[in-house]
Amino acid sequence: MAPSSTPTIDIEALGLDQGALLLIRRALAERPVGGELRVRGRSPDWEMHLEAWCRSQGHPLRFETAESGLAQARITRGPHAEGRWRDAQATGTALGDINGTPADDAEAGWGLAARGATVEAGSPDFFFALHRRHELWAATAGELYRQAAAAQWDPSTAIDWEAEFTLPPPIEAAVVQVMTYLIENENAALLVPARHLGQIHPHYREVLQLLALQCADEARHVEVFTRRATLRGHEPALSTAGGQASLRTLFDAPDFSVATFLLAVLGEGSFVNLLNFLQANAPDPVTRQIARLTARDEARHVAFGMAHLEYRLSVQPDYQARLRNAIEVRYDALASTAGLNEEVFDALVLLAAGELSPGAVARGHAAVQQLQRDMAAGRRARLARLGFDRDEAERLSALHTRNFM
Amino acid sequence: MTEPTLMMGAVAYAPKVVTIWEGFKAFFAQHGLAFDYVLYSNYERQVEAQFDGSIHLAWNSPLAWVRADRIARAKGQSVQAVAMRDTDCDLHSVIVVRADSRLQTVADLRGKTLGSGAIDSPQATLIPLGHLREQGLVAERDFKLRRFDLLGGKHGDHIGGERAAAVALMAGEVDACCLIDGNHLAFGLDGTLPSGSTRVIARTGAYDHCNFTTSPGAPADLIDRFVSLLMAMRWDDPQVRPLLELEGLREWRRGRTSGYALLERAVDDENFYSRDGAILNPDYRY
Q: Does domain B6-88+209-269 have CATH number 1.10.10.10?
């Protein structure tokens, strides 16, 4: 007898409600539309369930008697299962192109799918405002994400909260004031990227992941600054209108790149100097440890900001004018405010002085002046790396908010 | 002059009904058919509306079809089943017991308790009861009937009654229960009736389910256009595929009325509607 050309599967005693459907679906997927599959089985309800399933899936079905005398089913593969994948959308590759770069423009219909997945046509659109690569990408985003993931630290164990120290009350008060100032700045550094994070098309996975960790970094910073502020039983101290007005302008930045420029490149860049200053000059070991760990995180945030703007300027050189404009607009917006509050300035001086004697205060004052020079030099260097000439970098650096962030 | 609009009735048995018909309405509009729909909370009012000029056609349950057909005949009019789903053809219901039950055949149901679906469910009440009557077993004479009467007037479209009966079977509250065959598989897959926990002791003959029923005097040109557009809907088309999935079909088919004999007989035997479509069952609430 000639061998039958119709493939046969035997589901034996496995019920369709026990997994046999998987075997049938896979075997049927191997058949062309209109092709047949023969199924044998012996579980109690397999024929009835197969009939119900084939009806629901649009596969014609008939039963026949095998040579053995047992019933067997013949399924004809219907056209519908294939239809689902007609005109499906390709979404690039998981690792990006040969340079690891994702698509120029991520389509709304790709939605939340993994980069590289095949997406059924008709999937719902997701309207992510940030869906063009040049508006958010950084060539080193993946590498920075890996560094950030490896560098997460646990506030409860990374800092020795029990370290012994006693500060004179005016110095402890100065620490509390600086912590109060840091907390409100870190709230901004958490919320500004978070607002953009929710707008980023998940096709740009590495940026999404990196910003998520950046938010987690800031959450930790808020925690440790709060813990240090209250370590000796004090409540946080003063928050000024001028300080908050300065941070408010970060929320008003018109797009992700400008916000990143003002917050990360200029603000957090200056903050790295401030945290290094605290690491060197703080009067107690807890504050010094906090400053060391947070400065490391902030340096990574600055690195991403720089990498993003370098990428954007490489594909859109005239965007530099927007950056210049953003500094000038922010300067004008803040011209009528006080800038860094006196309490914070004095607190920094006191921290560095360690006591209220004229000699110590002179040292502290000099240290804070050096900090401001370091901040300005850092800003100028970063602006120069972004293509601003020396004079322009000098001018723009001087327009940066007196509130530091 | 405004273009005439084809008005269709549908029963709001679940929130998805709005999604389905808003989607189909947009599809018909794109293809030049002025179409609108009216939602009814139950099939009885929908069928009655087919005779007062409110709607040109109705998306009817099989029981609603039986009633519409009876009312039309009594009035000397006629209604037509013009289209249905591929999944509406050749269904079966089953009567199941727990796997460890002593019940082997329907005759063993004598003196026992049978769980059914809603009072107006063709698949989980009327057709299975008709099947048992054929075997000489009449509800409340030969066995006790416990109805899981959810959402009267929806004609069992809401499968809650079937599920409640299945849960009662597993809890030992009833000795057997009635289900549509596809739900026996679905309840097995979702764990309501764990695989291997039940045994089928009876399976009804084949019957058909829903259809689009025209109202007497419906505009033939609009109905023809409507049916052609249904037939033109393709599973491949991402615009309509989600709607077809919600409505539970792969393709629309021309209507047929050859599959309603079992239900017709059960409706008479169970005294549900009179020959002219009046509601007879005094326990029916909708």
A: no
In a domain, A346, yes or no: yes
Nearest to B181 among A18, A44, A48 (CB): A48
| Average pLDDT of the residues in A284-310 | 97
Percent of chain B with pLDDT over 70: 99
Residue A16 belongs to domain with CATH number: 3.30.110.40
Q: Tens digit of pLDDT for each residue in B27-71?
A: 999 999 999 999 999 999 999 999 999 999 999 999 999 999 999
Which residues lie across from A282 on neighbouring strands?
none
Question: Per-residue pLDDT for A237 more than 50?
Answer: yes
A58, A120, A122 member nearest B251 (Cβ):
A58
How far apart are the C-alpha atoms of B259 and B91, rounded to whole Å?
9
Closest by CA to A253, choosing from A337, A333, A340, is A333
CATH of the domain at A386: 1.10.620.20
> Residues B86, B252: contact at Cβ < 8 Å?
yes
Tokens 């999944």 belong to: B87
Please enumerate in sequence order all residues whose Cβ is within 8 A of that of A333, keeping only pairs 6 or more positions apart, or say none.
A245, A249
Q: Which of A82, A103, A118 is the last residue of a domain?
A: A82
- State whether A261 and A367 are in the same domain: yes
Range of the domain at A60: 8-82
- What is the tens place of the pLDDT at every residue in B142-185? 999 999 988 889 998 878 889 999 999 999 999 999 999 999 99
Tens digits of residue pLDDT in A240-254: 988 898 899 999 888
Q: Which CATH architecture fits B93-203?
A: 3-Layer(aba) Sandwich (3.40)
C-beta of residue A48 within 8 angstroms of C-beta of residue B92: yes
- The conformation of residue A128, written as its DSSP 8-state character, comes to -
E strands in A181-329: none
Query: Are A59 and A176 part of one and the same domain?
Result: no
Q: Which of B183, B209, B236, B240 to mutate to test the interface with A (most CBs of A within 10 A)?
A: B236
pLDDT value for A250 = 92
Q: Is A55–B86 a contact, with Cβ atoms under 8 angstroms apart?
A: yes
**Looking at this predicted complex, what is its ipTM?**
0.86
Q: Are residues A324 and A192 in the same domain?
A: yes
The alpha-carbon gap from B235 to the nearest alpha carbon of chain A, in Å, equals 6
Work out the burial of residue B177: count CB atoms within 10 Å of its CB; fewer than 13 is exposed, 13-18 middle, 19 or more buried: buried
A16 vs B contacts (CB less than 8 Å)? 185, 188
Residue A2 has pLDDT above 50, yes or no: no
Chain B, nearest residue to A82 by Cα: B236
pLDDT at A1: 42
- Report the residue from A16, A87, A122 with minimal CB separation from B185: A16
B185 in A contact zone (CB under 8 Å): yes
B236 has a chain A CB within 8 A of its CB: yes
With CB atoms and an 8 Å threshold, state whether A83 touches B236.
yes
